[in-house]
Write a structure and sequence with these properties.
alpha/beta, 2 domains, Peroxisomal Thiolase, Chain A, domain 1, homodimer, 10-stranded mixed beta sheet, 386 residues
Amino acid sequence: MRSVSIIGGGLSKFGERWDKSFRDLVVEAGTAAVIDAGIEGREIQAIYGGCMSSGRLVGQEHVGALFADFLGLNPIPATRCEAACASGGVALRAGYLAVASGMYDVVAVGGVEKMTDFDSADVAIALGGAGDMEHELFFGATFPALYALMARRHMLEYGTTEEMMASCSVKNHKNAVHNPYAQYHNEITIEDVMNSGYIASPLKLLDCSPITDGAAAVILCASEKAKKFRKDPVEIIASSQASDTISLSNRHCMTELHATKVAAADAYRRANLKPSDIDVAEVHDCFSIAEIMAIEDLGFFDKGKGGPASLEGLTALNSEISINTSGGLKATGHPVGATGIKQAVEIMWQLQGKADKRQVKDAEIGMTHNVGGSGATAVVNIYKRL
Amino acid sequence: MRSVSIIGGGLSKFGERWDKSFRDLVVEAGTAAVIDAGIEGREIQAIYGGCMSSGRLVGQEHVGALFADFLGLNPIPATRCEAACASGGVALRAGYLAVASGMYDVVAVGGVEKMTDFDSADVAIALGGAGDMEHELFFGATFPALYALMARRHMLEYGTTEEMMASCSVKNHKNAVHNPYAQYHNEITIEDVMNSGYIASPLKLLDCSPITDGAAAVILCASEKAKKFRKDPVEIIASSQASDTISLSNRHCMTELHATKVAAADAYRRANLKPSDIDVAEVHDCFSIAEIMAIEDLGFFDKGKGGPASLEGLTALNSEISINTSGGLKATGHPVGATGIKQAVEIMWQLQGKADKRQVKDAEIGMTHNVGGSGATAVVNIYKRL
C-alpha cells in the first residue's frame, strides 16, 4: 500500500444556508479545496462523496455523479459512500484506499448535507434511519433518545454529571468563536446549557449538535507525489474503521462505543503511536455525552474520567489534549455527510499551523474520529506533516 | 495493485418478496455467497454494500453496518456505496480497490433493494432521484420518460424500430426461463411486447425492467490467495468506471451513453482485449433501448446496428455474443442495488461452467456493464478464470 497525503482542503460556510442549494454547497467546498491544493480540475482522477440523507430530504440520490457534474469533472469515476453521520469518514477512507491501491494518484473527497430547508420532524425521521429503523425509530427512539440512554448509564456507572457534559458544549462554543466557517460564534456558559431545556433527559438543547447545511472537501494524493503540489502536505498515517450492532439494544455495553475502540486500536497499531502522542483531535460530539465517551474510548482518559477531565478543562485549547478546536459538531454544526471531511480539514490546518486563534501550539500529530448512528460505524484517522 | 478474484457468489430469489424484509434478503444472498466460497465469516475483513433507495423507501440508511450486523460480521468495516442503479457496480469496485490496495485479502460485497412493498408512485419518485431531481424529476421526467427520449432519437437517427427493441425483451425472457433466481419464467413474443401498452412512447410495459426485491453478494479475494479457497476462482481483469452529466439535457448526444464508452475503453485497455474477445456479457437493460445502446457503446456492434443485430438474434444465447444470459434486468428483475452484483455472479457461473441450460459454450471472457440513472455512472468489468 502506498502512503496517502492531503494536499488541499476547503469548507463551505456551515449554518442555515437557505441561499444555497445542495449542489451549490458542493461547489463552494470543492472549489475551495481545489484552489487550496493549487491543482487543475483535470488532474483529479476520481471522486468519493459522503452524504447520508439526500434521498429522503432533497429527493436526490446518485450524488457522486452530481458532484462530478457540477464541479465540471466528468467523465472521471464518482462514487457516493454512506454510513450515516460517518458518511464523510467512510468516503475519505474509500478515497484513501483508492490512492493507496495505486489506481489513482489524485482523488477528491467531498461531503455534504442539506438539512435546514425541511420540517424538523422529517429531519428527525431521516436521521433516525442511522439507527435500526425497524427496532428503534419505529418505536419512537430518535437519536437524542438513544444518546440519552447512554448518558443515563454513564451517569449511573461513573458519576458523570450534567454539568460535566455541559462543559463540553461550553468549550466547543468557545473554540468556534475563532472558526469563520462555524455555525455559531457565541460563547455559552454551563448555566446556559443547564437552563436550555430537556430534549431527552438528561440531554438538553445545548448538549445537542444542531441541524446544519454545509459541505467539506479534501484532495488526496499519493505521498510520493504530494510535494509536487505543495510544500506542506499532511500525511494520513493510519485510516481505520470498525462496525458494531446497529441497534443499541444489542450492545454488550452502553457506556462505550465499541467500534471506536476497535478502530482506534487498529489506527494506533498502524501508526505505531499511543494516545498520549496525539496533540489535537476532532472527535464526534453529536451530543455532549458522545464527546465524553469518545475521549475515553480513544484512550485519552480512563473510562469514567472523561466527564471530570472535561469539566476541569483538560480538553480545552492548548491544555492536556486539544479536543474539537474547530468547535466540534456542537458549534461548527453537523451537516451529516460533511462532518467527517470537515474534521480532516481542521486537522490539516492545525498541522500546517494555519488555525489562527484556535491554533494548537507545536501540533505534530492529529486525529479525527467520526461516528455513524449510535456507534454502528466509527472511523479513526491519524495524521502528521509529510 | 494486486490482482483480485471472485471466490464465491450468491443471490436471493428475485421477485415480489413480501415474505422477506430488507435485512432478510441481505442475509439470504450473503449466506449463499459465504457458503459458495467455502469460507468462515471470520475470514471476511471488510464489507461493501450497494443500495440506492433504502432511505427513501424503507427508512433505513447506514446499511453497510446493517449488513455487518445481520450477517454476524461485526466489528469489521462496512461501507455502503451508492450510484443509483449502478450502486452494486460501484460497491463491487470499491471492494475491488480495497483488496487491490493490499489493505484486505478477503472482502464481501453485497447489494440489495426492497421495492415492492411500496406505492408505485413513491417508487417512481425514489428512482427519479437517480437523475437530476431539480432539473428533471421535478418537472415530471421519470425514468421511462428519459429513456423514451433516447429511444425516439435512436429511431430517428438510425431507423431503429419498436420491434427491434421488443426483441431484446423477448430474448431476455427466453434466457430467464432457465434462471431459477429470476423474477419471470414466462416466454414472451414480439407481439406481446407490441401489445403491452405504452408507458412512455415508444417504450411499452414489456420494454421496461420491473420493480423487484432482491439481493446479491460476492466474496472477493486477492488472486494470489484465491486458490486456497476454491479451484475455480474468477479473476476481475479490469474494473473501470466513468461519469457523465446527471441531466440528459446537458449531454452532447442522446443515442449513446458516453460514460459507458469511456469505462469500456478503459476496461479494454487494462485487460488488453477488444470487444470481439468477449464471449458473454451482462449489460444494463433497464429498458430495451438501453440494451441496444449498450451493445453498441461496448463495441459489440457499430452505432445504429444494435437494433437490427438484436432482431436478427445475434445477441441470443450461443450466437455471435451472448447478452444477458441471466435474463437481464428485464426478466431477472432489477432490485436496483443488487443488479451490479447479480451481473458479476452470473458471469462467475458462466466462466465456471455452472450456468446449466443457459450456459455459453466455451465461455472464456465475460463482461458486466452496470449503469446508474440515465447514464451518469457506468461501471464496466472484465473477467476470466484465474
